[in-house]
Design a protein that fits this description.
Blueprint (H helix, E strand, L loop, with lengths): L3 E6 L4 E7 L1 E6 L2 E5 L6 E14 L2 E15 L2 E6 L2 E3 L5 H17 L6 H23 L6
Helix pairs in contact: 1-2
Length: 141
């Protein structure tokens, strides 16, 4: 049996409730790895990829920020957005990345650079999660 209970939630829905042996998250200061009996913590998440490992299987998710709480072998992710890799529309993510890049290149007074950078990071996180899921081990499901 897996050692961690994992919940991934957004304001709109519960994305996943499962068990895992380990969780890797995109924390503000770099990747954060969680194993059983991890010390309690709360950390800010940045746009990136969550990896859940159960045995030799791995599940990938794209998140665009939020927080994680770890306590009593429970990992609770409260993300702004979260998608399972297999749910991601790759073409839509590519188009979003291209739009954000174009906005950054234009960098006129009407472009909110921080917003365009955040959009680019979200799109790239989505594309990386899909790529990782395609090229790595089988998923948990």
């Amino acid at each position: 049996m897996a050692a961690l209970a994992v919940d991934i939630m957004t304001p709109e829905r519960r994305v996943l409730q499962t068990q895992a042996d380990s969780v890797v998250l995109p924390a503000a200061d770099g990747e954060l790895g969680i194993l059983s009996h991890h010390a309690p913590l709360v950390a800010q998440l940045h746009a990136g990829q969550i990896r859940l490992r159960l045995g030799d299987k791995v599940e990938y998710f794209a998140v665009s920020g939020g927080f994680v709480e770890v306590q009593n072998n429970r990992v609770t992710v409260m993300a702004e957005t979260a998608e399972m890799a297999q749910e991601i529309d790759v073409e839509r993510a590519r188009q979003a990345a291209e739009r954000a890049k174009a906005e950054l290149r234009a960098s006129s007074g009407t472009v909110d650079i921080a917003q365009a950078q955040a959009a680019l990071l979200r799109a790239l996180a989505r594309l990386r999660a899909v790529e990782a899921a395609r090229t790595r081990r089988p998923s948990i499901r």
